[in-house]
Design goal:
Blueprint (H helix, E strand, L loop, with lengths): L9 H16 L9 H15 L9 H17 L6 H9 L5 H20 L4 H8 L18 H11 L2 H4 L3 H17 L6 H7 L6 H21 L4 H15 L18
């Protein structure tokens, strides 16, 4: 018996998503998952659906998507006190929407880095308060787990950043993503790609992406969120919403428009 995401009630949908995650991503949580493993899972999802074609995966579109998702993350906290922000996130029922927006910020950051060869873990090290620390040299997307990156940002980001509230981190994410977008604004696709090869432009791109990724990791670390788990839950949900067999050829229809 097959189910449609339109007819599943929330309880059954959560059960189905949990089963899919256990089947495909059971071992991927923050203490074991590396950024490269998460990138590979997202790239596989996009390739199976043709989502990497055309302008959808261009640097300006992906950085604009990070701006949008950062703004939506902020909207969850804009009227809440500092205490209520943290209480909301630690509640498994009220924190769901914020976790989804955080997963979206991570999603587009990982895709942008994967498609243009940016090692986010090394980029994080460049934004720490002590980038010359010996531990920073060992960070890389291939072997560093998200859990290790959490430890790094909590001990090496400057103290004012470490103490930011969820709302303040979301504001920082909006600012950094806008600065990242400026690196690609008004440029052709070829010019954007060349930016990643230009020794004068690449450091700033890496620094902005590292800051975005680092703030995302810090947000999760400060609020008890398993970043890998919320991302893979979002991936499982999108696998249900966007079945690969109905999206061959790179269709960009919204899930409720797919027959």
């Amino acid at each position: 018996m097959s189910f449609s995401i339109k007819t599943l009630n929330p309880k059954n949908l959560e059960l189905k998503l949990a089963m899919r995650m256990r089947q495909h991503h059971a071992e991927m949580q923050d203490h074991t998952a590396t950024p490269n493993q998460l990138k590979e899972a997202l790239e596989k999802f996009c390739q199976e659906r043709g989502f990497q074609k055309g302008n959808a995966g261009s640097p300006d579109h992906l950085s604009a998507a990070i701006i949008t998702e950062s703004n939506e993350l902020f909207s969850n906290f804009k009227t809440l006190s500092d205490r209520r922000q943290r209480r909301m996130l630690r509640n498994p029922y009220t924190g769901v929407e914020a976790n989804k927006e955080l997963a979206d910020v991570l999603w587009f950051s990982l895709l942008l880095s994967a498609r243009h060869g940016v090692d986010l873990s090394k980029a994080i090290a460049l934004t720490g308060s002590d980038p010359m620390h010996f531990y920073a040299y060992s960070l890389n997307d291939e072997t560093s787990t998200i859990g290790q990156l959490k430890e790094y940002v909590k001990s090496n980001f400057d103290r004012p950043t470490q103490k930011l509230t969820p709302r303040e981190i979301a504001i920082e994410l909006m600012g950094e993503s806008c600065a990242l977008f400026e690196q690609f604004r008004f440029r052709s696709t070829d010019q954007m790609i060349e930016s990643f090869k230009d020794p004068n432009k690449r450091p700033e791109i890496d620094r902005r992406l590292g800051r975005i990724f680092g703030l995302t990791v810090l947000f999760a670390a400060n609020n008890g969120i398993d970043l890998s788990w919320v991302l893979l839950k979002k991936l499982a949900e999108n696998e249900e919403r966007y079945p690969a067999d109905k999206l061959k050829g790179g269709s960009y229809k919204k899930y409720n428009e797919i027959l």
